Structure formats: C-alpha cells, structure tokens
Amino acid sequence: MLEGMLGFDDLEARVRGAKVRTAVVCADGEDVLEAVAVASSRGIVEPVFFGDRERVEAYWGRLGLAGECEIVDGGDECVARAVASVRAGDARMLMKGRVTTAQLLSEVLKRENGIRGVGFLSHVAVLRLREKGEMLLLSDAALNILPNLEQKVAIIKNAVAFGRQLGFGRAVVGCICAFEKATPRMPATLDALALSQMDWGESVVSGPLALDGALDADLAKQKGITDPAAGKCNILLMPNIEAGNVLYKSLSLLSGCEVAGVVVGAKVPVVLSSRADSVQTKYRSLVVGACAAHFK
User: Fold this and answer.
1) pTM for this structure?
2) Band of the pLDDT at 255, cuts 50, 70, 90?
C-alpha cells in the first residue's frame, strides 16, 4: 500500500539523530515521559518539558535520567508557555501530556498568540496492518466531527503532504463510504464522487468506496468494482469522526494493528496522544511527528 515502507522501524531510521526539539506540555505523566525518554535516547527528539518541575524530575529520575532534562515550570500558564516556545521558533513539535485536548487546541488555535498557521488542522493516523504488514494513513479519526466538502479537500491535502514527509510514494486516496454508489440518501457518497472528479495532480482520489473495495483488490473484483484505485488505496478519507474513530480503535484494539497519530496543518506537528494510548503508541507518534517536522 505505502510504497517502499515496511514498518515503523523504517520511519524511525529516517529521523534517528534528527533531535527534533519538542515542547512537551504538562509533562508530568509517567507514560508520556517514558515515550519521550525512548525517543530522546535514540536521537529522535530533544525534549523541553513544560510542567511541574518536582513531578517531572521525579518521574525522569525513575527512568534513570535524573539531571538530564530541560524543564520550564509553567504553572497555570503551562500550555500557553509551551505554545509560545513553538511560536518563537524554540521548538519544532508539540506533544500533549496531562492536559485536555480542548485546552491544548484552544491555545494552538488562538489567532494572535497561537500556532495555527494558514492551514486547516486535521488528525492523521498511521497504521501498520498486522495481517498484510502494509502501512496506510487514515484521516480524520480524532479532530473534525463532520467535515464538509471543502474541509475534506483540506484533510486530503494534509494527508498527502504528510505521507510525502514520511517518505511514501504516490498517494492513492479512497473516500470511504458504506458502498460504491453515490446516492442523495447518503451525503458522504456525493462528497466522495465530487472529490474523485477534482484535479489532484499526481495523486489519485477515488470514491465512493467501501472499505473492502478500497483495500482488497480480490474483493473489489468479486464485487465488480472497476475503479483502478480499488484495492490500492494507501490513504483512507473517513466520512465523519465516528467512522474514523471506530475504525482506528478497532484496528488497534481488536486486530493488534500498530498505530500512531499526529495533528497536522498547524505551524508544527502536534502529537495529540490519548490517555488510553500505550507508551509504544505515544513513542510511534513521536516518530511520525518528528518525520513531519524534520522533512517539512
């Protein structure tokens, strides 16, 4: 699916030694610090922690790294100070710690003091399918609730650009719906058809496609789908956040799929990990975020 990539090890190899300076917000959670410690030890990130100094130092010390971290004791202004460091050019990536998504994004999106940039923010998940060993991108599973046609255009552009930063080949985007026929009763199918008729340059955008037709060429053939992109999609555009979130979590929790995720479209990548994400998922998210920052 994603040309030339075997797994997250390949992505890690791309950014070993890059030392992407990363502002870690409210960094007093042990799982976050453990993921950052691994990424730091491999030269992927150079962290600066914004949070409670005593708690950060205590957790960092438990990892055998006492005295080896830079800490800004931000107090109630922790999030604002971390975002300000990015705005000033002192950090090239932002990572969420023990702070709510709403709190972090409210600072990111401020018109005067934020880091929203000129783009549209969207979440892109990176997944390595366990059965096939293939990698694909999925968007949006965490940020945009019910994107309209214009927003879907921006989400696709973000995902395609992100794929390039990860080192992937030509983007083949499948606009995922319940089935392959456009009908007014399912507005997402009409959006998918409209998107497939736009000029995307070297990228391919196809739809509407059901998930099986997008990912499995044999099943697409059985269903009589003649779309040349069928079975070859490496980016999945989801119709809404419910579909995206359920698919993302199903692949992670039920199939053992390796996952990562990052918010793109701001001035820097934002690692917006969930409290339920494992240390390994947080680490992989740092890896893909560092790729996006380093190869911007």
Assistant:
1) 0.93
2) confident
